[in-house]
């Protein structure tokens, strides 16, 4: 690939193009190249000429992932959902702006100051909280205002459409009556155990089903990949870390841990001058060095009589408690160590650390070993990554690259674009690269893919096969199972219809009926919701009689006898809720219809 670029760059045409590129970049910046050679390469989608950028999609993905509500394994699906949502939002925004919907700056300001998340404890808007919350969500104040303005326009559009719909009084009354209605019914479940004999199917039936459902038996376009992976953690696993390095890392990690301290304080200013205070402090230090206990020395020398009576104990402190000078001394000491003389304001201090609130060394040994080893391989990892970038770009295969990096050349099984799994090949961006034009069609190595801060990957297509319909022999078991299930269901439905006919003629059937009494539409019933829904679609029975119907279930058929329908008692709260839900569903249907219409007329390029 690199050689072809070099060869092409020798022509006069290439030199003229390069000259134009250099001039454009010098005068107008690198963005000018997009005007010379087409769209911005970071543009993923164009909606009626308006771009949706890759950065915009990734920003929304990261915001959603940062919320913690989306598992990492769903990131790829999340990215696809966000792409489609951005297309919909763009279409609605364009439609709203074409319709003249407008939001003033004052309206945006009022909305922002009214958002509870931006208010302090007294309910007042706080600029500091505003900036902090936006920063945490990945917004600048300007980008948030712009997005809020566009969002309000879309809301105006959607609310206008929703409020254009209305419900007549008699419709609301009828809905309430249907909602409070109660039905009592019996049902019998029929499944494959109720069938007599085995289901026999012919070769012609198999072939007919196979041909009628050909799309179910297609093998998607697939590739087999070769790949080279650099993993910083794997490199770190092979590093030997000595005990001294672990101890140093333990001390460094817990350098800011809360600690219990004692002190000897000698003041100056009123009763003694600074020199006298220093001489007294040095005497106290000499006493400590001679072996006198810190408690006894504090009692003899410290002007802080309250703490001196407790052996100089100040209790447990956090960094910042007594100021930078005190912290610098106290947090540089290990447990049991004593400082030299520390001057703060009009006092001299001698500080001793008597305890540190930190995890035991053994409790952190494994994570310390990992951190130290990761740091030790950091340079080697960066060197390997740079070598991978340089060599994979120019190489005609990955075997030589893997050998030069002393890494294994790994191979995948057959993969399709939408496969999911747990290996590195299913992480975001990898299969997109594998099926890109450069890698799939041109046969180049992929760009170096940054999976995370510790892993880099390059893939190459080793083999490729187009989408094709699988031969019947390859999927015979699957086709046969589907045909058998279909025939069983057909026989069960015929058997249930025969039972209905007999019941309607006044006969009885030798079955154990299950009962469901006084059931409302939304009640939690022992019967399947499919059976309840079917029961509420059945015509009313005559007094003293029953109506009969069948209901198809995923793995069988139900025979239903509807015995009684009663109006039921009014439930104002439930009926109000159902009316609101019905209104919302109608509004959603209107908006969805608009979106479908806009999408059908839009020019969307991906």
UniProtKB/TrEMBL annotation:
It is found in: Cell inner membrane. GO terms for molecular function: peptidyl-prolyl cis-trans isomerase activity. GO terms for cellular component: plasma membrane. Belongs to the PpiD chaperone family. It is a single-pass type II membrane protein. InterPro entries: PPIase_dom_sf (IPR046357), PPIase_PpiC (IPR000297), PpiD_chaperone (IPR052029), Trigger_fact/SurA_dom_sf (IPR027304). Keywords: Cell inner membrane, Cell membrane, Chaperone, Isomerase, Membrane, Rotamase, Transmembrane, Transmembrane helix. The keyword Electron transport does not apply. The chain crosses the membrane at residues 12-37. This is Periplasmic chaperone PpiD. Residues 256-355 form the PpiC domain. PROSITE patterns: PPIC_PPIASE_2. Pfam families: Rotamase (PF00639), SurA_N_3 (PF13624).
């Amino acid at each position: 690939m690199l050689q072809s670029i070099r060869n092409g760059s020798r022509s006069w045409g290439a030199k003229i193009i390069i000259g134009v590129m250099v001039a454009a970049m010098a005068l107008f910046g690198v963005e000018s190249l997009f005007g010379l050679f087409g769209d911005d390469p970071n543009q993923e989608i164009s909606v009626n000429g308006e771009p949706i950028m890759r950065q915009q999609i990734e920003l929304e993905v990261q915001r959603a992932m940062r919320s913690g509500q989306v598992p990492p394994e769903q990131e790829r699906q999340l990215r696809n959902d966000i792409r489609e949502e951005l297309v919909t939002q763009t279409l609605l925004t364009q439609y709203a702006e074409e319709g003249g919907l407008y939001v003033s700056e004052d309206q945006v300001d009022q909305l922002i100051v009214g958002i509870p998340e931006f208010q302090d404890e007294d309910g007042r808007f706080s600029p500091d909280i505003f900036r902090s919350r936006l920063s945490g969500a990945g917004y600048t104040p300007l980008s948030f205002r712009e997005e809020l303005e566009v969002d309000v326009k879309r809301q105006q559009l959607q609310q206008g459409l929703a409020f254009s719909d209305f419900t007549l009084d008699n419709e609301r009354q009828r809905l309430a009556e249907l909602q409070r209605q109660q039905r009592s019914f019996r049902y019998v479940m029929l499944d494959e155990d109720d069938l007599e004999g085995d289901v026999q199917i012919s070769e012609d039936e198999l072939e007919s089903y196979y041909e009628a459902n050909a799309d179910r038996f297609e093998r998607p376009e697939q590739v087999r990949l070769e790949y080279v992976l650099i993993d910083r953690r794997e490199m770190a696993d092979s590093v030997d870390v000595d005990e001294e390095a672990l101890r140093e890392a333990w001390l460094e990690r817990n350098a800011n841990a809360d600690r219990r301290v004692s002190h000897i304080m000698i003041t100056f200013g009123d009763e003694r001058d600074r020199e006298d205070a220093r001489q007294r402090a040095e005497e106290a230090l000499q006493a400590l060095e001679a072996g006198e206990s810190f408690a006894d020395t504090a009692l003899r020398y410290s002007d802080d009589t309250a703490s001196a009576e407790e052996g100089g104990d100040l209790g447990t402190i956090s960094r910042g408690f007594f100021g930078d000078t005190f912290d610098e001394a106290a947090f540089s000491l290990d447990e049991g160590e004593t400082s030299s003389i520390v001057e703060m304001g009009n006092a001299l201090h001698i500080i001793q650390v008597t305890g540190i609130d930190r995890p035991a060394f053994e409790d952190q040994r494994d994570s310390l070993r990992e951190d130290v080893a990761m740091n030790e391989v950091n340079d080697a990892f960066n060197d390997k990554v740079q070598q991978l970038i340089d060599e994979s770009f120019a190489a005609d295969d990955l075997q030589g690259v893997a050998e030069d990096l002393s890494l294994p050349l790994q191979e995948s099984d057959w993969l399709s674009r939408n496969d999911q799994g747990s290996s590195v090949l299913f992480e975001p961006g990898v299969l997109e690269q594998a099926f890109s034009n450069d890698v799939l069609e041109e046969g180049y190595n992929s760009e170096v893919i940054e999976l995370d801060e510790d892993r880099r990957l390059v893939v190459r297509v080793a083999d490729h096969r187009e989408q094709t319909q699988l031969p019947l022999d390859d999927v015979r078991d699957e086709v046969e199972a589907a045909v058998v299930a279909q025939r069983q269901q057909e026989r069960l439905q015929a058997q249930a219809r025969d039972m209905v006919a007999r019941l309607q003629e006044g006969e009885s059937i030798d079955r154990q009926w299950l009962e469901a009494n006084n059931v409302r539409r939304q009640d939690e019933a022992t019967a399947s919701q499919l059976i309840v829904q079917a029961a509420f679609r059945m015509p009313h029975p005559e007094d003293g009689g029953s109506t009969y119907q069948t209901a198809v279930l995923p793995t069988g058929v139900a025979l239903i006898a509807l015995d009684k329908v009663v109006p039921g008692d009014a439930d104002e709260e439930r009926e109000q809720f159902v009316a609101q839900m019905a209104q919302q569903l109608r509004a959603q249907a209107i908006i969805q219809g608009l979106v479908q219409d806009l999408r059908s007329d839009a020019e969307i390029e991906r």
